[in-house]
Each structure stands twice: as C-alpha cells, then as structure tokens.
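Reviewers of the previous submission asked for a worked example of the structure-prediction workflow described in the proposal, so we include one complete record here. The input consisted solely of the amino acid sequence. No template or homolog information was supplied to the procedure at any stage.
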Amino acid sequence: MINLAELGRVFIVCGKTDMRRGIDSLAYIVKKSFNLDPFSGCVFLFCGSRRDRFKALYWDGQGFWLLYKCFENGKLAWPNNEDEVR
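From that input alone, the workflow returned the following structure tokens.
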C-alpha cells in the first residue's frame, strides 16, 4: 500500500503522453527528457491527449507502482508547458 504521507515530490509531465506506454517507457521519459531519477521516490504524472485519463509512476523502494485513472465524464485541465503549471 502507498503511504501518501511518505510520498516525495510530485512532478507533472506537461503536454500529452502516449497512454500505451508502460513502466519502462515512462521511466525512460523521466530520465532522458527531464534528467530526473525515476527511482527517487517522487511521483511523476502523465496525461493522455484526450485529457480524460492520466498515469502516475512511483518507485516505493521495491518496485514501481503504475497508477491509471480514466474519467468517465469530464476532462483534466492539463498544462501544455511549464508556464501553465504556475
């Protein structure tokens, strides 16, 4: 079980991500595109192009958690770039 009180920082990956990607591909994006360590205990959030689903990647020290959420109604207001996050 994930203890939310122990989670590290949360990073929002701006723009759209191919939701067909799995753990290895998402970890590769974190490492190569952002020069961050996917094994750091931080949470990395990714959103699909339709903005009605997202994935969260989290390393708990023993393995990765890949959480997937799909909204039946509505969409996320997902930022396209760093300025929109602020």
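The longest helix spans residues 23-34. We consider this example representative of the routine output the project will generate in years two and three.
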